[in-house]
Amino acid sequence: MKTQTAHTCKTCDKSFKYLSRLVRHRATHSGGKPHACGECGRASSQRSCLAQHRSAHAGEEPHICGQCGRAFTRLSTPHRHQRVHSGEKPFVCEWCGKTFNYSTLLAQHQRIRSRERPSQCARCGKGVIWKPSFRNHPKSHSCSDAAWTSAS
User: C2H2-type domain: from which residue to which, for each copy (predicted)?
Assistant: First the structure.
């Protein structure tokens, strides 16, 4: 009988069956993103994520929704997209009971309720609930994108 060796992260004690998964996990603690897209500069901690990102630049969308024909770059996206057709909303707000079809929408809702602003402009201190909200703010007083900091 073959014994399985657990590979444990020294930072958070999370265990992995495979050493490669532990190595990939360690990047979450360092925040390092060594794999950068040559086209737009977006960086990733994993080479596989960068490859997926590059396929989006190339216009590759091999994963198709069987109901509406919408195409996606990621294999997991059509599965989540099915919730649009089924009406499934598995994510529930613990405070008010409102339901959401995506965990990111629930997280955004909870930030609104708690008034949490996880990212803010280092220049003026303005906080935002959702990172894409950053796009228009720099124009308001010549803040650069680099001025944004994230609390998370």
Answer: 7-34, 35-62, 63-90, 91-118
Q: Is 125 exposed, middle or buried (0-12, 13-18, 19+ CB in 10 A)?
A: exposed
How do residues 130-150 score in pLDDT, each as one tens digit? 666 666 666 666 555 545 455
Q: Could you give the CA distance from residue 25 to residue 45 in angstroms, rounded to a whole number?
A: 9
Q: Are strands 119-121 and 148-150 parallel, antiparallel or unpaired?
A: antiparallel
pLDDT one-digit tens code per residue, 68-103 = 999 888 888 898 899 999 999 999 999 899 999 999
Buried b (16+ CB within 10 A) or exposed e, 86-124: eeeeebeeeeeeeebbeeeebeebbbeeeeeeebbbeee
